[in-house]
Amino acid sequence: MRNIVEFPEVLRLIEDRSAAFRAAIASAADLDVQVPTCPDWTLRELAQHLGDGRRRQAAIIAAGPGAEPPAKTDPKGAPTAPRDREALGPVS
């Protein structure tokens, strides 16, 4: 039997997990530490990766229904992800 999560619950889970991740970033002494579950990644790289995904999702939503999804950006031409904690996103 599949457990189907209703859309409002999905939104709440996204917000809860996002808030927890923002708090982890804000409280980390060093953003260049390894992520225990992803030892090839630093906390900064994980934050940048998640931020890239969120920016793409925001662009898709902003484009509206029926619009073509934005093309994936060639990493060589992509803007450099933020390096400092404040630029990674608001902590609220």
SSE diagram, text form:
Elements: H1 7-27, E1 34-35, E2 38-42, H2 43-63
Antiparallel strand pairs: 1-2
Kindly report how far apart the N and C termini lie: 37 Å
Question: What general outline do the C-alpha atoms trace?
Answer: globular
The biggest beta sheet reads: 2 strands, antiparallel
What Rg do the Cα atoms give? Answer: 16 Å
The level of helicity is 40-55%
Mean pLDDT: 81
Sheet with most strands: strand arrangement: 1-2
DSSP helix count?
Answer: 2
Q: How much beta, percentage-wise?
A: 5-15%
Summing up helix and strand content along with how strands pair, one would put the structural category as mainly alpha
Order of helices and strands: HEEH
Quaternary structure classification: single chain
**Strand runs, count:** 2
Low-confidence residue ranges: none
Organism: Micromonospora taraxaci
Pfam family, one: MDMPI_N
Region (Disordered): 55-92
Biased composition (Low complexity): 58-70
Structural overview:
The protein has 92 residues and is mostly helical. The chain has a domain at 1-64. It contains two helices and two strands, in the order H-E-E-H. The chain has helices at 7-27, 43-63; strands at 34-35, 38-42. The protein has a two-stranded antiparallel sheet. The relative contact order is 0.14.
Would you summarize the structure shown here?
This protein is mainly alpha-helical. 46% of the residues lie in helices and 8% in strands. The protein has helices spanning 7-27, 43-63; strands at residues 34-35, 38-42.
